[in-house]
């Protein structure tokens, strides 16, 4: 199929460059109600995306337009030719400044390893289920439902500049809902997990923690109206906030003047009184569903220290925007590894604070640093007693606070959403901020 597409692309003289990304996916899925399998499903998918590049000049400036189409394996040559001609036409209306495509690399991509290589996907599904439900033995709480997905993907990337890469990867994904009922209404909490390797202890402990949080949620009191407080974020909300540093260092954000950070300048202000941020992008992070030896353009990936001690070391970015800024492209790396902080979570909890583990909604403006969230589950400690709370909201601006924030010594690995893209976060499990605005309910 790819040979047919390449022949058609080469025959079209209106195309300046092209790129093909093929994903051949073997998928297994389990849908469960409580512990009972409601429906198992397996499928095979062959996805082929073709990007057409069209170069042209206007007023002495060179431009490169692009358009991406999806080719179905059942399409005839005539249908493929028609789809490609449409993409050429569409690309002629896109006016991006010219940028080159990567060619063959001198370095060899690093192969990804996984325990899932040792057996078929269908053999792993009951093992994943068993790990997820290991601690589902509480009297008043249980896993209400779950959906388990495990995909084996063969990716091939080819372009007109002679680049050609192929590699295997695994992407596991779980959605599950925990329920708890004491005396009043039943409480539910939702959690998403992603993974690329079999880690039964990690799955079991995460599910257990969610069941325990559901129990806490069943006994909540209204959030007091504190006006401002020291706030500890715990768990996945930390990843959502820490993405700020990743996105601020992106070449596209800098080129579009969304970010004004500069290399070798502090990203946390002139004087850092708390913990300084250190961020490494690691394309081969273990058990990450977004680990990859190459990015979507075929750039061979390696680890890069982006921020060290609060100081930006370099930008990261894809071929296009790195070319615009005249910096070496790191490629698109979706694994964020932050170094641990100076305080344990128990040390953070020693002072009066509001701790939040779950939000109904948490929004973060990565341009301004503003954040706000509706509290779904948390705890308030006034210096003497600790109560479980829900409702109300917090708000603040990270730029006004991050020169005096603290990160935990304890580390977590979890998924952080960025648009439709999952980012994998490995870093502090708790984050302490001062003078955060709190509205009670």
Quick summary:
With 441 residues, the chain is α+β, with helices and mostly antiparallel strands. The protein has eight helices and 21 strands.
Written description of the protein model:
Strand 19 (411-418) and strand 20 (421-428) form a beta hairpin. Helix 1 crosses helix 2 and helix 3 (121-132) packs parallel to helix 4 (200-217). This protein has a 7-stranded antiparallel β-sheet with strand order 4-3-2-1-5-6-7. It has a 6-stranded mixed β-sheet with strand order 12-11-10-13-20-19, covered by helices on one side. It has helices at 2-11, 77-91, 121-132, 200-217, 236-248, 251-255, 319-325, 345-348, and strands at residues 17-33, 36-58, 61-71, 96-97, 141-159, 164-180, 187-195, 221-222, 227-234, 279-281, 304-308, 311-312, 335-338, 353-364, 370-381, 386-390, 393-397, 406-407, 411-418, 421-428, 430-439. The chain is an alpha+beta fold and 441 residues long. Helices cover 19% and strands 42% of the residues. The protein folds into 2 domains: 2-217, 2-Layer Sandwich (PmbA/TldD fold); 221-439, no CATH class. The longest helix has 18 residues, at 200-217. The protein is built from 8 helices and 21 strands.
């Amino acid at each position: 199929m790819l040979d047919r597409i390449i022949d058609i692309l080469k025959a079209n003289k209106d195309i300046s460059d092209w790129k093909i990304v093929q994903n051949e996916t073997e998928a297994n899925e389990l849908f469960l109600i409580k512990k009972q399998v409601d429906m198992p499903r397996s499928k095979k998918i062959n996805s082929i995306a073709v990007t057409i590049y069209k170069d042209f000049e206007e007023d002495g400036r060179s431009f490169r337009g692009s358009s991406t189409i999806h080719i179905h394996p059942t399409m005839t040559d005539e249908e493929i030719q028609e789809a490609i001609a449409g993409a050429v036409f569409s690309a002629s209306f896109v006016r991006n400044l010219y940028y080159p495509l990567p060619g063959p690399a001198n370095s060899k991509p690093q192969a990804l390893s996984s325990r899932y290589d040792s057996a078929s996907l269908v053999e792993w599904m009951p093992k994943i289920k068993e790990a997820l439900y290991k601690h589902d033995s509480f009297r008043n709480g249980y896993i209400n439902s779950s959906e388990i997905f495990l995909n084996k993907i063969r990716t091939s990337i080819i372009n007109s500049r002679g680049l050609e890469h192929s590699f295997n990867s695994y992407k596991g994904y779980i959605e599950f809902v925990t329920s708890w009922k004491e005396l009043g209404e039943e409480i539910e909490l939702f959690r998403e997990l992603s993974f690329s390797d079999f880690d039964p202890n990690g799955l079991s402990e995460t599910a257990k923690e969610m069941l325990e949080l559901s129990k806490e949620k069943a006994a909540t009191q209204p959030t007091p109206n504190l006006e401002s407080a020291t706030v500890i974020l715990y768990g996945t909300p930390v990843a959502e906030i820490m993405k700020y540093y990743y996105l601020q260092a992106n070449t596209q954000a800098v080129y579009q003047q969304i970010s004004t950070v500069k290399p070798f300048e502090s990203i946390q202000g002139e004087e850092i009184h708390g913990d300084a941020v250190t961020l490494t992008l690691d394309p081969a992070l273990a058990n990450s569903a977004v680990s990859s030896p190459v990015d979507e353009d075929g750039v061979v990936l390696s680890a890069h220290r982006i921020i060290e001690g609060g100081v930006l070391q370099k930008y990261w970015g894809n071929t296009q925007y790195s070319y615009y800024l005249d910096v070496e492209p790191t490629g698109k790396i979706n694994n964020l590894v932050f170094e641990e902080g100076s305080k344990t979570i128990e040390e953070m909890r020693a002072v009066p604070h509001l701790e939040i583990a779950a939000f109904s909604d948490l929004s973060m403006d990565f341009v301004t640093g503003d954040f706000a969230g509706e509290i779904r589950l948390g705890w308030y400690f006034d210096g003497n007693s600790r109560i479980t709370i829900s409702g109300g909201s917090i708000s603040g601006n990270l730029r006004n606070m991050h020169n005096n924030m603290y990160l935990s010594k304890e580390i977590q690995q979890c998924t952080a959403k960025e648009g439709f893209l999952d980012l994998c976060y490995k870093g502090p499990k708790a984050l302490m901020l001062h003078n955060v605005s709190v509205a009670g309910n």
